[in-house]
Sequence to fold (294 residues):
Amino acid sequence: VIAATANEPVRGEYLSRIAAGEIAAYAGTERGTGSNFWALESAAVAVAGGFRLKLRKSWATLAEVADLFIIPTRAHPDAEMTEISLFLVERREGVQAAEPWKGTGMRGSSSGPVDVDALVPRERLMGTPGRANDYITTDMFNLLLLAHAALYLGVAEEALKLAAARMVRRVFAHTGQALADHSLWQARIGALAAETRAAGALVQRTAVDVDAAYGGRTLSEDALAGKLCACGLARRATDAAMEIFGGSGYNRGERVELLWRDARAGSLMRPSDELTQMILGRLACGMAPFGSGG
Ligand SMILES: Cc1cc2nc3c(=O)[nH]c(=O)nc-3n(C[C@H](O)[C@H](O)[C@H](O)COP(=O)(O)OP(=O)(O)OC[C@H]3O[C@@H](n4cnc5c(N)ncnc54)[C@H](O)[C@@H]3O)c2cc1C
Fold:
């Protein structure tokens, strides 16, 4: 985001700091609009030398440890909800991670609300005031979709690998047959394997396309489809793996249980599965991708 939107010297300074180890978080989501990330209620207020940001964001991954925060908010209090500006704010200027959040899964990273009460120098408004959605809903969105698609494709692949190995290992004493000998499970795993290959091919092709088109400010329908397919697949594959592991899968700390919990987050990461379907549906009908919802 900084590389794409900030001007020098801010761009160079902060990219160097991140390269040297400082951590940046993206604090975009707000309670009022939730998954509908292209519309925000909070607003920046212009003051001498810069802007005052006094707002709360409902989610930011790495909020507890981040040194820097990328914060989208309305350009000014009278702006439309889609007229958004991007700010780069340092934690020491007044960003606090609120109460710690205990996720059902993805415990390797911390995510949660942040409270911002900061005076931000004018030069750290990144890009054209009010026009951040030109980037957030296209190039940035494509990368986010692709990252989620690749992540949850990996979850699905790992779940399938674990499930297949378990099917071979689990042999019933009364028949001498393994789960892998049952056509019911062969077919179920086979169907998921086919879906995984299809999702993998889509994600790989989309990665190449998104890379080539980066900077062109267009939204990739393939990236939307890839995120939708991979996240749904991760939920189905981890659920099937849980079935195959039987009671032992329900053990806290079992790898398959961890994947099952992690997979749940994919479908709600923006855009949620429903919103992704709605955006794709709007595009299929020749409408603008982002509507007022409902
Ligand atoms: C672990 C985790 C990490 C996150 N990290 C970040 C981060 O680093 N930065 C960040 O900015 N955000 C982050 N988020 C936020 C995330 O990307 C989602 O935007 C957010 O969780 C969704 O908002 P919400 O919880 O208010 O859900 P809601 O928006 O209330 O959604 C609830 C349900 O309503 C549906 N819905 C929503 N809008 C509509 C509509 N218009 N029409 C029909 N149905 C609708 C959704 O599909 C969903 O099923 C994170 C979330 C989690 C769980």
Summary: The chain has a mean pLDDT of 95.
